[in-house]
């Protein structure tokens, strides 16, 4: 049960981290009214951040479906067909995990833009248009804005680290179920009841990640729409 416990503990932390994306949403919501009034060009920069995060959340939700939306039929006559389908889903699921890793490797490089701007404000340089969406001009308020932008930067950066953890834990869970069935080369119908119980445990745990991701996807879509 060691592997199971370790993965389940990791999943709990991951679900909480995904919920923390709300910090980015709240920060941008506070500044969005300034887009139309003063800095329309800034919308594209902010929307890009939101769209990239949303893509990773959608793929995360899809990748977890092998554990959250597959069930073995409780009938030995169905085991062979179920195992074939499950094996195909393993292949597809691992492909999605690989694609998700590639996406976050690409998007993670964009986080530095926010950090760069936050550092400029902290040093007292001229406000960039991206910051002015918050409507802040004074030196004192610049410090507050810099802190807010750093929070956005750190949350976005942490999000991509979290998605890496999703990939790691998801692959471990899939492999654990697969090995319980017999592992690479031979899966055994007689192992289905044991594997099904394990799959059920993982399914309930990863549903927390899926639900958190889907909730944030909805919120971000609404925010992107408001910025359009």
Q: What does this molecule look like?
A:
The chain has 228 residues and is mostly helical. The chain has one domain (2-108, 157-227). Helices cover 79% and strands 0% of the residues. It is built from 9 helices and no strands. The protein has helices at 2-19, 22-31, 33-38, 42-63, 65-68, 79-108, 111-122, 139-180, 192-227. α1 (2-19) runs antiparallel to α8 (139-180). 34% of the residues are buried. The model has no long low-confidence stretch (mean pLDDT 80).
Terminal CA distance: 49 Å
Residue stretches low in confidence (pLDDT < 50, at least 5 long) are none
Please count the helical segments: 9
Total domain units? 1
What is the SS-derived class? mainly alpha
Average pLDDT confidence is 80
Q: How many strands, what sense, and barrel or not for the largest sheet?
A: none
Estimated helix fraction: over 70%
Q: Could you tell me the radius of gyration in angstroms? A: 22 Å
- What are the secondary-structure elements, in order, as H or E? HHHHHHHHH
Given the C-alpha coordinates, what overall shape results?
Answer: elongated
Number of strands: 0
Instruction: Tell me the fraction of residues in β-strands, as a range.
Output: under 5%
């Amino acid at each position: 049960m060691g592997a199971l416990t370790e993965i389940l503990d990791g999943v709990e932390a991951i679900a909480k981290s995904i919920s923390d994306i709300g910090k980015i949403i709240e920060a941008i919501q506070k500044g969005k009214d300034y887009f139309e009034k003063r800095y329309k060009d800034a919308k594209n920069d902010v929307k890009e951040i939101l769209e990239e995060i949303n893509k990773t959340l959608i793929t995360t939700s899809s990748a977890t479906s092998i554990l959250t939306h597959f069930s073995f039929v409780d009938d030995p006559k169905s085991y062979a067909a179920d195992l074939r389908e499950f094996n195909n889903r393993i292949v597809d699921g691992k492909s999605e995990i690989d694609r998700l890793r590639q996406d976050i490797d690409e998007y993670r490089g964009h986080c530095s833009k926010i950090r760069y701007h936050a550092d400029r404000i902290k040093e007292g340089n001229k406000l960039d248009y991206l910051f002015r969406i918050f409507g802040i001009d004074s030196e004192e308020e610049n410090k507050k804005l810099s802190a807010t932008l750093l929070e956005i930067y750190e949350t976005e950066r942490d999000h991509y680290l979290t998605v890496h953890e999703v990939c790691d834990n998801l692959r471990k869970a899939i492999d654990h179920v697969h090995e319980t069935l017999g592992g690479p080369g031979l899966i055994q119908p007689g192992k289905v009841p044991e594997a099904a119980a394990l799959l059920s445990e993982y399914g309930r745990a990863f549903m927390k990640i899926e639900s958190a991701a889907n909730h944030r996807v909805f919120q971000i879509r609404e925010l992107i729409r408001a910025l359009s």
